[in-house]
Amino acid sequence: MAYKYNDNTFIMEITQFDAKGSGRAVIQRENKQGKRKKQHITIPYTLPGERVQATLVPPYRNRVAKPDQIIEAHPERIEPACLHFGKCGGCSWQHISYATQLKEKTSQVKQLLEEQHFDSNVVQSTIGADEAWYYRNKMEFTFNKAGELGLHEKGNYQNIIPLETCFIASQEMVNATTEVAKWAQAHRLSGYDKETKEGLLRHLMVRHSQATGEMMLALFATESPVESSALSDLKERIKDKFPSVTSLLWLENRDIADKVQAQQVHVLAGRDFIYDELAGYRYRLWYDTFFQTNPKQAEKLVELALEMAQPQATDKMIDLFCGVGTFSLPFASRVSQLAGIEIVESSIASAKRNASDNGVHNTLFLAKDARHGLRKMLETFGNPDVLLLDPPRSGAGGKVMRRIARSKPKRIVYVSCNPRTLVSDIKEFVPFGYQLEVVQPVDLFPQTYHVECVALLQRETI
Ligand SMILES: C[S@@+](CC[C@H](N)C(=O)[O-])C[C@H]1O[C@@H](n2cnc3c(N)ncnc32)[C@H](O)[C@@H]1O
């Protein structure tokens, strides 16, 4: 329980993490009627077991406090590496030793399963990254209205922190981003102002393959590129200093919605895609292709999924939410036939191309949403022996899960980037006689509270 310090400042005991990896504490506060009330407070960048002095920040209804002083620090608290830590919305756990990050991720998954009455003994210890820094192969940066390029400020997405360092992207990505930032400043180019809807430059997306070394720089702007000295200068700077850039794009996004999207693609240099490789397969990645952002850990995911699913040469398999085929291709070479389903048409086009580029010929791919796509696929393809699903953070949802269960696959491998939706989804399988055999958390996102899991469910034979 907390002691009041002055009006909005309290001494707090951190008791647990919240769902987003911030510390939580309970305080006693007087309401307008003078009654003392218990309030649950979120204190970012604190750890359970710590004693801190923290001040509530407006708007008070959000019940968030900023730590002013760590009075008793957790023994695993460490000095964050990045100067943007605490301001940038990217990393939230740089102040926690890596070993403790892994332990916390395992406990988080166990706790979510226990809350839904699953046996948490099926949860294995989180598999950590060999390299907990510089692991990301894709980053998105934003221009502010002054044309400065950087990262969104945590809690204030209108504000941009000009980029100086980033410890989770490769140095080559940071250097290329810094060069584009210097170019925009040198030519006094304006950034897009979300309020007035004016300004030229919106975002810079950087993709960098760790396997092939190829890099894509994609500039999002509100207008088409004018053939000007500024543009020639950009091409020269990139050509001279970054020969790894095999794709330099200008993407026109005239939409008011400030998403990383484009109505028109202009190739300024190279191709409109880069090559990447994962688990021995080669992929073409366009600017809008979903691809695993931590490729080294993603290879471990693929290996685990293969181990759990034990695909047999006679098996028919469905890969639901297949993207560009990251799981489809390694599995296809081990089963008789594989069908992939995915909502984004360009990803399905890419999956087909990736399959043929890699000499994989026993696949078929359908561009449709999971629910309707699965129904349609089951009619023509028949029931699968093995089903793998890898939905987005929002999960697959009850209807999709029940449809999967009714198709009676012997083994289901569920790959998830959100343990919360994983647990609520797999609950749907229980009435159909599926047993949760194992949940293996894998750390794809070091320095953040996020965790990926691979779960195996098997149908009990009666
Ligand atoms: C976490 S990604 C996994 C992709 C792929 N398995 C991989 O590892 O690269 C989730 C995928 O689901 C797709 N998706 C999102 N909503 C969908 C829906 N309603 N139906 C089918 N696919 C969907 C996304 O486009 C994305 O490619």
From TrEMBL:
User: Which UniProt keywords are given for this protein, alphabetically ordered?
Assistant: Methyltransferase, S-adenosyl-L-methionine, Transferase
Q: What Enzyme Commission number(s) does the record list for this chain?
A: 2.1.1.190
**Active site positions:** C417
- Cite the Gene3D superfamilies for this sequence: 2.40.50.1070, Nucleic acid-binding proteins, Vaccinia Virus protein VP39
**What is an annotated GO biological process for this record, any one?**
methylation
The record's GO molecular-function terms, alphabetically, read: methyltransferase activity
Enzyme class, spelled out = transferase
Sorted alphabetically, which InterPro entries does this protein's record hold? MeTrfase_TrmA_AS, MeTrfase_TrmA_CS, NA-bd_OB-fold, SAM-dependent_MTases_sf, U5_MeTrfase_fam
| CDD domains membership | AdoMet_MTases
Pfam families for the chain:
tRNA_U5-meth_tr
Enumerate the residues binding S-adenosyl-L-methionine.
Answer: Q292, F321, E342, D390
Quote the NCBIfam families the UniProt record gives: rumA
Family to which the UniProt record says this protein belongs: Belongs to the class I-like SAM-binding methyltransferase superfamily. RNA M5U methyltransferase family.
Protein name per Swiss-Prot or TrEMBL? 23S rRNA (Uracil(1939)-C(5))-methyltransferase RlmD
Where does this protein come from, organism-wise?
Virgibacillus dokdonensis
Could you read off the lineage of the organism from its UniProt record?
Answer: Bacteria, Bacillati, Bacillota, Bacilli, Bacillales
What gene name is listed for this protein?
rlmD
